[in-house]
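Hi support team,

I submitted a single chain yesterday and got back a structure, but I'm not sure I'm reading the token output correctly. Could someone confirm the output below corresponds to the sequence I sent? I've pasted both exactly as they appear in my results page.

Thanks,
R.
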Amino acid sequence: MPRIAYFGPSGTFTEMALAKLESAGAFDGPVERVPASSQGAAIELVRAGDAVAAVVPIESSVEGSIAPTLDALAVGPRLQIIAETELDVAFTILGRPGIELAQVRTIAAYPVAAAQVRMWLAHRMPDARPYTSASNAAAAEDVANGHADAAVSTALAGERLGLAVLADGVADHDQAVTRFVLVSRPQAAPRRTGADRTSIVLELANKPGSLMRAFAEFATRGIDLTRIESRPTRTGMGTYRFYLDCVGHIDDTAVAEALKALHRTAARIRYLGSWPATSATGAPPPPDEPAAAWLADLKKGVADL
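Hi R., thanks for writing in. Yes, this is the structure output for that exact sequence:
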């Protein structure tokens, strides 16, 4: 039974995402779920060979990219994203049995979750003092262990720990979605579907125009960039790496040509994978067949092209 790591403990949205991938047939059969204390810890279990893959959150429609996941994928031995899934995210406020919402004085929350319910808490629980927890499920455990009166968490964590539901469906923004990815050791990319996502990490020479030239490799080939983000390399002030997502697959000629061009010019390029996208994000790259046929005719000496 393959061991699949996930950002835990049990009861997190990440475990729900793992369950969704299981039900979608991402694995050949049953898996052993292995909780990890952080996104980076889950990814390191794969690098160490203690898990064959890991499920981690990578992007929130409310708070943007998940920095610990991006940082963990950018350094260390290369890993590869092979699948993704999305979850609608609304939180449950959990408390010890018998407590009421008005009695809560401390509320535990994972920082990403706290940011997504900030307005709700300010309106409904203005006197509750925040308590930082390591994950959504850990927030529920903090309540069970007496460290906080209530938690911003999940219904699954409440059921597991026997906590009371003080409020459900809590979110500042309707239709909040978080995207999760399945990360494995490097392998051949899943087959091209025509609705795919490719992700890379770039480190560029600190020269005028280097970022513009990198973007031009995509623009001139009609490739739709769907995410552009910079993160510090932590090697010195003013040094950054760039995370780029585009529509398309490494088997699309336009995407492959852009990657080759970047390999020739970038200080460092890390390919994070090509995989089927859960939801449409933009226009696919232009097909290569018409241009390839035209070029083949030119080589044959066909007239009147």
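A quick pointer for reading it: The chain has a mean pLDDT of 94. Let us know if anything else looks off.

Best,
Support desk
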